[in-house]
Amino acid sequence: MSPLTFHPAGVPSGLTGRPDAQFGFELEFQVIGEDFVDVNAVLRAKLDEAGFGDWAVVEEGAHDYGVEVISPILPGAAKSWANLAAVLEIICSYRGVDGASAQADHVGGHVNFSFEEQLEPPVYGRVAQLNMAFESLLYRLGNHYGATALQRDLWAVGPNPIPPPAREIVSIDEVQALSTSKYDAINFQYVDGDASDWLEFRFWAGSLDPAVWQVHAEISAAMVLAAKDPSLYRRLDELMADPRLLGHEPETGTNETELGRLLDFLALLPLSPAAQKLAVALYAWTSPWTDQGANDHQLRAQTVIGPGARGWIFPTRGDSVPDVLQISGKLQEYAGAEIVVATASPGRRTVEMWRRDPVPFAGFAKVLAARGVTGNAADEAKHAGFEARLVLAVSGGAARLGLAVMAEVSVPTVVTHGRVQVTEDGRIESDSEWIELRPGGEQPLRTGVTDLRQALDQVWAHAAPKPQAAAPGPSAAWPGFGGTPFLTLAGAGAPASPGVAVPSDQVSSDNVNWSWR
Predict the structure, then answer these.
(1) Bias regions of kind Low complexity — which residues (predicted)?
(2) Do the bridges between strand 413-416 and strand 389-393 make them parallel or antiparallel, or are there none, so unpaired?
(3) Which residues, in sequence order, are bridge partners of residue 25?
(4) I want to staple 484 with a disulfide (CB 3.0 to 4.6 A). Which of 1, 47, 218, 480 is the partner?
């Protein structure tokens, strides 16, 4: 039985009852064994008859036999909650030929929220900070509920990238980069700088209980409103020094310390007493998210993506969250190229992971491909008429790992035989030259240099324009935007040797371990 109390007229003094509140729901569920055409026909007729013609019924392709009922934009009024309850009742009333009914124990339930007064770009950064500082807690609150509940699947709702300092977020592009894609815990992709902007809170699990949707909406609204409160900014900055990332609860933590984390979170939110009571009840009804393997087959909880949704780091066991954040924060961006920092297991064809067993090269490569690792670098490269590059900042990654990744990702991949290090000023260096592996059986390119930025200068100088790209021929320096040569290393001398193609049979593994400097 649900421990939550549904308030048909809205949570007393709740934020979703404010006249300037605007929200919507994506009610996902499954009707196992039933064709969508049949489910749609019945639900569409019932919704229309009940006066809910503006609620859409669509097929949810992410799940077998998936269905999604999407609300219109709802106002902060009592009727919104009465309407939600009525729609959920209609969904629950469905019965298939063999008695099949709606289930929501394996799906998501997204809350779309905004206030009429849109947020300034830095305020979205504060939402992202609040989300990351309490990431583990939010995934618990957003988990499927009940003692025997399934764990939330992360492939479509993984952790967001590290947000940059809020004051540095000044453009809509920088706001949208607070999520790598729509498949993050909070999706910032619907912020376009106009009156229709909204945030999509995707970390919530699905439900057919209106009380669950009510508390989810209240917490989502409170996170938005808290982000507008300057009195909280110092505390948010402090929390970002050591955020509680997903899967990184202290192994010696007690129920009291975890409850204290919840109270710390609630202390930052402008929730009414009734909403706070619902939040505590939801916490008691859910369990911490745990990695069961299949529920994180894309390694979302094993990855830290840097500010601007750039720079993918796969930490190893023993790496602390603050240390990883420090490396990510100083890692330089290489326009047109995406950096993947990882560690190959000594003497094995596996990649080390943060909180799980090492992953085989082939599986790691498939993950990078499935997640579109070069997606955020592709636009930069496209402007110059080239294809994005993937850089494997992996010691000794030049042979089997590099070839496996290139085959799956299907983009030119820059690798090295040598020992890789990140310098104090965030540059990536190797003690051996960087080599570009090229798809389609093309000869690899030896750059002759150990500094990655110089190596990429060689790559761009020898790159063929992307097919059908309306761009001039390649040049030695990256043709940056606004006249700034992004990939030119100031004051650098000529490469140690010119970039030349190396026969593929000379590209072999060099079993060298990863190290930081």
Answers:
(1) 494-504
(2) parallel
(3) 111
(4) 480
Q: CA–CA separation, 92 vs 45, rounded Å?
A: 15
The H or E element spanning position 389 is strand 389-393
Nearest to 455, CA basis, from 484, 400, 425, 412: 412
Q: What is the pLDDT of residue 254?
A: 66
Domain boundaries, the chain: 21-296, 303-463
DSSP string, 260-279: HHHHHHHHHS---HHHHHHH
318: tokens are 């023993």
pLDDT value for 441 = 86
309: left (phi over 0), alpha (psi -120 to 50) or beta: left
Return the HEC string of 33-66: CCCHHHHHHHHHHHHHHCCCCCCEEEECCCCCCE
Spatial separation of the C-alpha atoms in residues 242 and 285, rounded to whole Å? 27
Tell me the pTM. Answer: 0.88
List pLDDT tens digits, range 216-252.
999 999 999 999 999 999 999 999 999 999 988 766 5
